[in-house]
Amino acid sequence: MKKSNFNKAIYVALTAVLSTCYIAQANNEVADETRTKTEQRLVISTDAGPVENSSTWGRDYFPNFTLTTQDGEKVKFFDDLIEGKIVAINFIFTSCGYSCPVETARLKNVKEILGDRVGKDIFFYSITIDPDTDTPAVLKDYKEKYNIGADWTFLTGDEDEIIELRKKLGLYIDLIDNNEENPMDHNLSMVIGNQASGRWMRRSPFENPNVLAAQLGDWLDNWKSVKTQKSYADAPEMPEAIAGELIYRTRCSSCHQFGQDGVGPDLFAVTRRRDPVWLARWIKEPDKMLEERDPLAISLFDRYKIPMPNMRLTERDIEEVIGYMEFETDRLIALEQSGGD
Prior knowledge:
By secondary structure, this protein is an alpha/beta fold. 45% of the residues lie in helices and 11% in strands. The protein has helices at residues 3-38, 77-82, 99-114, 136-145, 159-168, 174-177, 209-219, 245-252, 270-273, 276-284, 286-291, 295-304, 315-337, and strands spanning 66-69, 74-76, 86-92, 122-128, 152-156, 190-194, 199-203. The longest helix has 36 residues, at 3-38.
């Protein structure tokens, strides 16, 4: 190759590389700008330092709307509820027959794991998306059904202001939340955060309650409350997973346990105490059975005061979760007979 041609080839190659780098940089800048705009509502901070009086996370970002507690007390969202606090915030409505009951029961599990820290340095807030129905009295009755206690606040307020709060917290998705066919459809995510440090994150309320409790009590608190660390050598061996166990842990364990009542009835030996056809249908469509005034369904509702939600399970899901109930009952019986070894 002649020298002139060689130099020309080098020039073309360098030009291509520089152009590629320029385009990549430009794309990154556009992506960063887009991400900044789209994540302006909610950004996870990894900075351990405080963000005092931050315009991003302070009162000039969060609305200071007036809300009303289940006891009729007027409170300001920023001043009274979140300023300087570690919080868990979700949005529900009390007439919900599907996700909200399970969500509330699951977060009650989280609250129980955190113990007396709730109401002292960690605060739980559930805000209704149906303020026309969910008056303070209705919210108070809802709390009492779940035996939640005084350290978790349920709130109502102006509907438009609640929508604005959901948008500011990154919990409003127009495609879901502005559904004319189902006006009560809503984004099921929740948000946890530490307003003082600027750390916020969206979470699923159906997450493992121990994980949520650790994120609220340790990560958002910058691990200040962690006193001891156990060795991995002391960790128990994980049992083999059983078909139906995942369904139980993600859909059922919020309300039901084996060996004692929870929010709902004890599942120990339930497959032996109930007619199998009745049990399968009850798991599949409890709402319809309650509408039909099925005697056993009504007696369960009268006892526990909370309707069994329709979990939208498939026939296979139901078969597997019933199989897991049988397995867990047999396992507990064998454990008791062996003296607990």
